[in-house]
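BUG: 3D viewer hangs when loading the predicted structure for this chain

Environment: internal workstation, default settings.
Expected: structure renders.
Actual: progress bar stalls at 90%.

Input used:
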Amino acid sequence: MANILYPLHVAVQVSDLAKAEEFYSQVIGLQKVGRPLTFPGAWYQIGDFQLHLILSEWAKHPKREDKWGRHPHVTFAIHNLEDTKHDLIARNLPFQMSSSGRAALFVKDPDGNVVELLEVSE
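Structure tokens produced before the viewer hung:
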């Protein structure tokens, strides 16, 4: 069991990053923050929570990419990634480790929705 601590972010797929950034910055009034990833996107901070925009063809033509972390997903903080991995393996549930090198994994719910579990040191 992952023992969820709190939500961290939601990732949203967008077809036009410039238009999406204008909407979330100018219309909604969110504050853009730094983003340590190389593929196109933008992050916004809302208190302790973040909104992640991901530029993707998926938004124009919904399809499933091989990297689950680039699907729309919700992220939860957890304390122990290794224990969570062992639990998922014991349940025969497929998952993907984050390709960014972070201590995180992605798992799908029964309907195919992606959930990211990210280890935090708190």
